[in-house]
Amino acid sequence: MALHDSDSSGEEYATTNVMLGYASEGPTDDIFSHLGGTPTWLDDEAPSASLATCKTCNSVMALILQLNGDLPEYLPNHERKLHVFTCRKKPCRRKPGAIRAIRGTKIYASAAKPFSHQNPTPMQNESLKSPPPTPNLGDSIFNTKPTGQANTNTNPFSTSSKSTTNANPFSSTKTGNPTPYGQRVHSIDPLPTPTSHQQSPLHQSFAQKARISSPPFPSSCPRPRSPWPSPSLLPQPYPSYHLDADYETLDAPSPQSGPLSSTHNISSTLSDSKDPPATDEDDDPANWLSGPAKADRTFLRFAARLAQNPEQVLRYEWRGQPLLYSKDDEVGKAFPSASASSTSSHRVPQNRIPNCTNCGARRVFEFQLTPHAISELERDEEGLEGMEWGTIVVGSCEKDCVERGVEDGKVGWVEEWVGVSWEESVKGGK
Fold first, then answer.
1. For 338-355, how does the pLDDT look when each residue is reduced to its tens digit (9 = 90+)?
2. Which of 51, 144, 191, 384 has its CA 20 to 30 A from that of 120?
3. DSSP labels for 145-193?
């Protein structure tokens, strides 16, 4: 995550490559992406119900997030949508397979160029302070317009229909530059540039079309699919919200400002906090607290970062890195470099998440859900026994492969990697 300083004389802030998603009751530019509600499918081709079934109770799960993942600049001729599901049954909480993510992809026959990892892209040498008008993953997916002068890349979660150069994965507007969570891609492995690309008339959203062609799949028949259940057999859906998006903007570091004053759903660990120090010897949030919370500097960075934009429900940065809730749990161990610093290098961050089970390619970080999403989804529910995660992280196939046996131009569904940081991961100084 690179920082882009504001050059306004009177304002002290920085805009990052991370595209933030916000729950909105009113419609936004992106007509596909939403938090909660019921799923809709790419080309009305429902996946096998087995992909959204709880691995503990075998019941079809409820939708948490539906995201337009088109990345035109990087995966041209690919149309891709992502869905995250959770089991609503109490006994299944915290059990493996109770939260799952799937990706639906359609690749047009004209995109058949092989994916390459060989040479670094020229973008890795770009200036962070004055980024040229290069395509941005976040803008492309969100179709949002970057805040201030951060960058002119497209944003997947973008909510601004006025943006003409940005493409947003979450956004439905058609723009020229793609970047799912409004990220400015650092030095990343080059993706093939299609020789001829014609923008598809289909609606663009969260991660806009950007084709990374997959290796030729073995000639095999598509896996058998169990039919998607009728609405009467589905669990009670969560309330539905549209998704609005914008680049993450951070205030200049200032211990006196006490950015931990509002953490939304993670305040329990900060209950023993003391006032921030009056000096600026160390602006690390880990030095602002005492007691058990002081032991987990990773969590404190998480809390301080979310406090700057407390209503965010989604963080998107394709090929970036997540904001860790804990460095010692499944997610923290999968992204060891993410705990080292709040900013990433100019190369695609390395991770230890499993490779794609469909094609064998590496997976990369794409997005994560934040605790405020729970507040929105369970706003009208009584009791305190709801979802208990601190963040849900999704890693997707870098090649955006299609289910084996699916022909060009047809929709295929693949399960992606999900890592969950549970609330208690930070208790007891972990």
1. 866 544 445 677 899 999
2. 144
3. PPSTTS----BTT---TT-SS-BBSS--S--S-B-TTS----B-PPPPP
